[in-house]
Every structure is written in structure tokens, then in C-alpha cells.
């Protein structure tokens, strides 16, 4: 009799001091690049989680990262108003492009010869998408892109290259999606299927489709060429990132909110998984929640008519979530802040699984290129 397959064991990567902003596999899948709201850019062996090295030079939060087709170069964009090109193997900085505002998105085209990045609309500066041809060193040296596209209405929050590098697909703070030609800068298409900010865009393995993640609690599937809306995957919380499996008809979503943002939304933002949660009111423990309990347990000394609780601050202490409240809890309140990646069927739009174990929001998700991780 054949022995059962070994259970999968998660690998915890500890290399950042602040929350993750993006994770990205290279094409082969042997390397994983991670960036966060700290200046560190890490690269890891994906098979065992060993850190291969870091790319040092940024002085602010790093919002985006990408590797070219053959993993020779790495591109990063940061809140320190710079986009940097690195030698993947040595970690040496090859190029520095200074900008007027934070670099929000960046990426290599299909051949790895052209880079694009977008800057934020802030401090009186307009949002731009800039294109540089790495085969012309003078463009980098003189900080003169061969094309620069202004986006005055709404800043770009996520952008990816389309098939064959002919255009880019940009998602905006307003929920709009645009196609911009990489040759002329012309806007090829414009649609608005989301009602709030688009947090993430990722393409399918064959570049025929892409999926968006939005603050409007949905992820949506589109055709890359026509921008036709194909599918919608709905949740009960903001979706921060979404990815398409390269081998199955599966979609994974990650989302949630920081504790400071929960007060602006419904107390039932939930569908989360929790371990132990202690709720504090004026320094004393009022109530708690444990795995398997139907909801929040309220001590007898609290009347059923107590005003509902609102989260003010959440801290993690030895696997216990400490939550301070601005008002008291009722038996119907159900605070559960710990999100899980959620898996949906691509065709049927139905959720079929979750993975427990996260503390805090999930800001970025990605499938390994072989589709098995």
C-alpha cells in the first residue's frame, strides 16, 4: 500500500520589519522577491525559504518589485521618490531614476528591454507613467524617458504589461481600468467595473486574462485585449490582492484591513479566522473569543442591551489579539480580525477553501509558476 502524501508545511519568511507590500516569483519560480513598508528588498529561495540576499539602497517604503524574463535584473519602486534597477545575482545597483513623487508600480516588458513605472499624485505633482528603453543608456543617465503619459484625473494604483509588451493595463484609485499603448502613449480602452480603488492587477500565465482586486470587496476577471468583464468574485471585506492559478481553474484572494481602519466599516466585516481575542474596556477584560465559539462571549455582568463595540486598537501578544474598545460589546457583536486566503473556482465563482493562520491583513498573494504552491 502506498503511503499517504506528506502534509504541506508552511514556510515562514522573516525578513521585514513592516507590513508586506508585494511578493513576486521569477519566471522559473526558484526565487521569491518581497518588498514591504520598510527600505528592505529581499530575495529568497522558494524551495526552503532561505534568504539569498537583500538589495540595499532605498530609504523609504518599497511599493513594487519585478524581475525580468531571465532573472538578470530586478526593478523596484519606492516612496523615497526613486525607481532602481539591480543586478539580481550580485545585488549591485545598476541604475537610479529619481522622480518627483513616490513610485507606486513598476515592471519589465516581455523582452526585459523596456521598463515602465508610475508615480503618485501627491505634493502638487501629477501622476505619470514613464517608459525607459534600457538599450539606450542616455535615457537613464539624463532621466529622460522615451515616453511619459500624464494621468491627471485619478492616480494609478496598479499596472501590468499586456501581451507582447504592446500596451500596459493600469488600475486607478477611482476604480477605472485603462489600456495605454507602449509605443504612442495613446489610451486604447477605458472601462469602470469597480466602484472603489483597484489594489492589485495580475495576469494569467498565458497573458490572455487578468484579475483585479479592489476595495469594493470584489475581485474581477477581464480579457487582456478587449477589457471585457468575464467573472466577479465577491467577499465581505476589501480585497488587497488576487492571483490566477497557472494550472487549475482556481483564484486566490487575500484581503482585510488594518485595525485602525475597521472603525470606518461594518462590525460584520468578518469571515475571518481567530485564535484567542481579549476585548478590553478601560483597561479590564470584558470578553473573549476562542476557536469554535459561535461568536463573542459576553460575561453575565454585561446587560444584553449594552452598546455595540468598536475596535480602536489591536495588538498581538503571544498569539493573543488584544483589542481596546471605544464602547461596550453586545452578544451579537462578532469581531474576528484574522483573515485567511480564500480560494474560488474560476468558472463558477464559488468559494471552495481557505487557509488559516494569518495575523492581520493579507496585502499580496501569488501562485508559484508550477501552480503547486
UniProtKB/TrEMBL annotation:
Keyword Cytoplasm found: yes
Kindly list the places in or outside the cell where this protein is found, as annotated in its UniProt entry: Cytoplasm
Q: Which Gene3D superfamilies match?
A: YVTN repeat-like/Quinoprotein amine dehydrogenase (2.130.10.10)
WD repeats: from-to residues: 13-54, 55-96, 191-232
Q: Name one GO molecular function term.
A: RNA binding
Claim: NAD is one of the keywords in the record: no
Quote the cellular component terms of the Gene Ontology held in the record: eukaryotic 43S preinitiation complex; eukaryotic 48S preinitiation complex; eukaryotic translation initiation factor 3 complex, eIF3m
**Record's keyword terms, sorted:** Cytoplasm, Initiation factor, Protein biosynthesis, Repeat, WD repeat
From the UniProt record, list the coiled-coil ranges: none
Q: Which family does it belong to?
A: Belongs to the WD repeat STRAP family. Belongs to the eIF-3 subunit I family.
Role, per record: Component of the eukaryotic translation initiation factor 3 (eIF-3) complex, which is required for several steps in the initiation of protein synthesis. The eIF-3 complex associates with the 40S ribosome and facilitates the recruitment of eIF-1, eIF-1A, eIF-2:GTP:methionyl-tRNAi and eIF-5 to form the 43S pre-initiation complex (43S PIC). The eIF-3 complex stimulates mRNA recruitment to the 43S PIC and scanning of the mRNA for AUG recognition. Component of the eukaryotic translation initiation factor 3 (eIF-3) complex, which is involved in protein synthesis of a specialized repertoire of mRNAs and, together with other initiation factors, stimulates binding of mRNA and methionyl-tRNAi to the 40S ribosome. The eIF-3 complex specifically targets and initiates translation of a subset of mRNAs involved in cell proliferation.
Question: This chain belongs to which protein, by name?
Answer: Eukaryotic translation initiation factor 3 subunit I
Q: What is the lineage of its organism?
A: Eukaryota, Metazoa, Chordata, Craniata, Vertebrata
Which gene does this sequence derive from?
A: EIF3I
